[in-house]
């Protein structure tokens, strides 16, 4: 899933560091209908072609089952870009390499930075 929303930030770091953003993502996850638990597993900042990306890994338990998520987040051209890949927690280890490869392909175009 990819989400694009307008923001008043020039760079993601203006909102907070990777851990702060990860905590906010997990708080939003906890508020979702049917979610009984959510926790942040990892949050890190990455630089690619002059753009800051945050990679957030978290998991939840819900009435729909346990799921693990890998999100990559960036701000460019006044927009917030979020790519989220997910797998059932029980299947995550087998899917991890594919999910990480998919996240690594997520970039914002040079014309959007700025």
Map the helices and strands.
Layout: E1 2-6, H1 18-30, E2 35-48, E3 51-62, E4 65-76, E5 79-88, H2 92-104
Antiparallel strand pairs: 1-5, 2-3, 3-4, 4-5
Quick description:
The protein is of the alpha+beta class and 114 residues long. It is built from two helices and five strands; from the N terminus they run βαββββα. It is globular.
Description:
This protein has 114 residues and is α+β, with helices and mostly antiparallel strands. It is built from two helices and five strands; from the N terminus they run βαββββα. The protein has helices at residues 18-30, 92-104; strands at 2-6, 35-48, 51-62, 65-76, 79-88. Strands 1-5-4-3-2 form a five-stranded antiparallel beta sheet. Strand 3 (51-62) and strand 4 form a beta hairpin.
Features of the shown structure:
alpha+beta; 114 residues; 5 strands; five-stranded antiparallel beta sheet; globular
């Amino acid at each position: 899933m990819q989400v694009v929303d307008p923001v008043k930030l020039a760079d993601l770091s203006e909102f907070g560091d990777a851990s702060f953003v990860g905590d906010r993502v997990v708080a939003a996850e906890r508020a979702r209908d049917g979610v009984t638990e959510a926790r942040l597993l990892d949050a890190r900042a990455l630089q690619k072609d002059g753009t800051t990306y945050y990679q957030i890994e978290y998991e939840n338990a819900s009435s729909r089952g346990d799921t693990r998520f890998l999100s990559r987040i960036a701000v460019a051209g006044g927009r917030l870009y979020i790519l989220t890949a997910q797998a059932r927690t029980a299947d995550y280890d087998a899917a991890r390499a594919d999910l990480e490869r998919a996240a690594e392909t997520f970039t914002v175009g040079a014309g959007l930075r700025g």
